[in-house]
Design brief:
This protein is mainly α. Helix content is 79%, strand content 0%. The longest helix has 104 residues. The chain is rod-shaped, with a radius of gyration of 55 Å. It starts with a helix and ends in a 27-residue tail after the last helix.
Length: 158
Amino acid sequence: MNPDELSTLTYQQQSRYLKEADSAIKNTEITRNIKILVGFIIIITCLMMYGCPQYNVWQQGLAGEAELKRATQNRQVKIEEAKAASESAEYFKNAEIIRAEGVKKANDIVQTGLGGPEGYLRYLFINGMNESNCDRVYVPTETMMPITEASALTRPRG
């Protein structure tokens, strides 16, 4: 309606017309707001459809880097443990060498004091007899064969 037509209407008709016009304006405003909201939702949905796969790729990349760093650290720990074990073995080896040299010197001293290797072996034999709990002793002969008494096994002791 143009303004000339509006002046010919009664007050009630004008009031109703203005209410209808105001309602139409509000409806178009609501429609426009709804369209903006729907457009915003569509834009966000599109961004999420693009962004989520990108985020997943980024997240998996970070997880891969973390796993690589963890594996590198574990490898370095194992290398350090192996170095420590090698160093420890070197010290044990040196200790065994020193102990063996001491035993060799002690054996040399005992051998020379007992008249050579034969005397040392006789000494070890006598010590072995003292430490054993056997009740029968076999004395080797010149051929290193013991003389046994077969009848001693059947005779009662006493």
